[in-house]
Amino acid sequence: MVESESAWRGALYGPAGFFTRGEVPADHFRTAPLVGPELAEALLVLLDRVDAALGRPDRVDFVDVGAGGGELAAAVRELAPRSLAPRLVVTAVDVGPARSLPGVAWAREAPSSVRGLLVGHEWLDAVPCPLVTGPSDDPWLARWWPVREGERAEVGAPRDAAWAGAVARVAAGAALAVDYGHVRADRAAGRYAAGTFAAYRGGRRVEPVFDGSCDLTAHVALDACAAAAGGDRVLVSQRDALGALGLTGSVDPAAPDWLAAAERASRVAELRAVGGLGSFGWLLHGVGVPVSALLPPLPPWRP
Ligand SMILES: C[S@@+](CC[C@H](N)C(=O)[O-])C[C@H]1O[C@@H](n2cnc3c(N)ncnc32)[C@H](O)[C@@H]1O
């Protein structure tokens, strides 16, 4: 393991690490599950399509890997429609302390055989990786992120392995990684020549230190994760994916509670904002279920 990777891992996941201690995004940065229930609603639409493709089995899993405070898992549990709720098993997976949420099981590892939908929401950006300054002869960089003299980059191989391992746990259904990141064309063009490694504490970007006092993160090479996990898959923007799942953000002028409808529309707009959460990537793999049964054709992700 490269020294920077082990320092990063120790800072987040060592005995006194940032996430080991139980720090959660809610206290340090804003993620989509904290915006409101709308992301969970969209994932329930996706889960319904998975459920239908699986023939509405007796048990349907929703597994949230890297669950943080468990907000997404809890909202999926709470909002599950009556047709699904009795068959739905929700598991939140995190290496941090277990939290007590009604109807949500906590685990430190994803179940070995998932039938339903496994989601990694802003999980992969928290998987530590080697930090390099070019030139470098690293084979992952040679394939995915050509670096020139003096340019900085993160070696995404540990994310590829983490994601491939998670997708391999899906016996039938789908796996979805949602994260901020980049694609090879933009990396190769030098758009990320300074690297993307960053630290956050208390809602602010801070100078990275490896002492467990801040979150350490970097953009995710989702195209490399896609290739590592293989199979039938698409990589699209959150903006397009949410639109395809029915979250368009338009306000019905005849809505009985117009104010509530307008508030909801503004949360949907935040989730779909170009340059913000809407520019996150959705990497969706189908396992025994064609991705075309889950999402219509959408333009490829280009953050
Ligand atoms: C950036 S937070 C995202 C939390 C939440 N999904 C959200 O979007 O608000 C990343 C989370 O992934 C967890 N994590 C990192 N590696 C993990 C692993 N191998 N297994 C389970 N959880 C992990 C961390 O402990 C942390 O809570």
From TrEMBL:
InterPro entries: NDUFAF7 (IPR003788), NDUFAF7_sf (IPR038375), SAM-dependent_MTases_sf (IPR029063). It comes from the Bacteria. It is an enzyme of class 2 (transferase). Signal peptide: none annotated. This is SAM-dependent methyltransferase. Its EC number is 2.1.1.-. Pfam families: Methyltransf_28. SUPFAM superfamilies: S-adenosyl-L-methionine-dependent methyltransferases. One of its GO terms (biological process) is methylation. One of its GO terms (molecular function) is methyltransferase activity. Keywords: Methyltransferase, Transferase.
